[in-house]
Amino acid sequence: RSTRDEDRHHHHHLKLSFVIIMPFANIVLDIICPSVGVILANCLFAAPVVDLRRALAAGSLGDLNPFPWSVQSGNCLGWIIYGFYQHPKDPFLIAANIPGFLTSIWLNLGAAKLQYLQELEEQAEREQLAAAEAAEAALSQHNGPTTRTSAADADDSHASENNNYSYSSIMALLHVNSDYECFAASRFALVPQERSFFAVLIFWALIVIWVAFFDPKHASMIVGLLVNVNLVFFYGAPLLTIQKVILTNNSISIHRPTMYMNWACSSFWTLYGVTQLDPIIMFPNAIGLSLGMAQGVLAATYPVHSAAPERRQSLLETPLLSSNNTNSNNEGNQ
């Protein structure tokens, strides 16, 4: 009888331990792990924020590669859509990607501003050079051989030359300003970052229309497969600069904070997918981890040569204005 009581007591303890352990395991898998995933995902999405703020302050993207930010928009938007199509809906999945999507909008807008400024100033430099050559040619036409009979005639000729030069410079600057307007109108203010960003948004808009109206039964599966493809592209987008890295022997275009968070985020979700035996989670993140490791190999193989970005020269600080100011100062000194 005592042996039977001991077995019953032992069985009671095992049952009690099982009851305690199972809820704790459910808490870990259903709450703690997804919460950690939300934090890691948002750290990954926000990794370029500090560097873009510096670039905006400097007025130049410098060595930043903004293309992954448009892919990030598609990745976050796709996971948000997938989260809404799931039954039951996954609040952690949505919470992990809404902040990332909003962050990606800011990143893309900032990159587009800097790209537009760069294209505009490159066009301005070409036009200013052409205007300076035209002004110099106009000045040289007034410097032909003349016979001056007195000092007063020489002073009048000198003043006339300066007036003609100033007039040519002003006309050249007006020509440049009109070219700015033509440049902006001809390009519709669309720079590469805007084109890639809108292409991603249009792609997902078409997907939503298709699954909502033509194939609602398989909406979750279709969106899930496509967003995993987008996820792999997001992890591998920094490798688009691999040719630049090898040719320049410089890996500055590989953003280090994003690469480190790539390792952490993809490693976590790969392990989580293994524990859950979920290939939809496991395989895309395993591929992402491999692509992140490839970035690490490039970063370790090729050194970084970087220089602090200089603030861009204002469009109003043109060589022609500077030369006019110099002429005015010379005239005042004389």
Main β sheet profile: none
Task: Say what oligomer this is.
Answer: single chain
Strand content: under 5%
Radius of gyration: 32 Å
Q: Main attributes?
A:
mainly alpha, 11 helices, 334 residues
How would you explain this protein's 3D organization?
This protein is mainly alpha-helical. The chain contains eleven helices and no strands. The chain has helices spanning 2-45, 49-58, 67-85, 91-141, 151-187, 192-213, 219-236, 242-248, 256-276, 279-301, 319-333. The longest helix is centred in the middle third of the chain and has 51 residues, at 91-141. The model is unreliable at 14-20 and 308-328 (pLDDT under 50).
List the helices and strands and how they pair.
Layout: H1 2-45, H2 49-58, H3 67-85, H4 91-141, H5 151-187, H6 192-213, H7 219-236, H8 242-248, H9 256-276, H10 279-301, H11 319-333
Structure at a glance:
With 334 residues, the chain is mainly α. 80% of the residues lie in helices and 0% in strands. The chain is built from eleven helices and no strands.
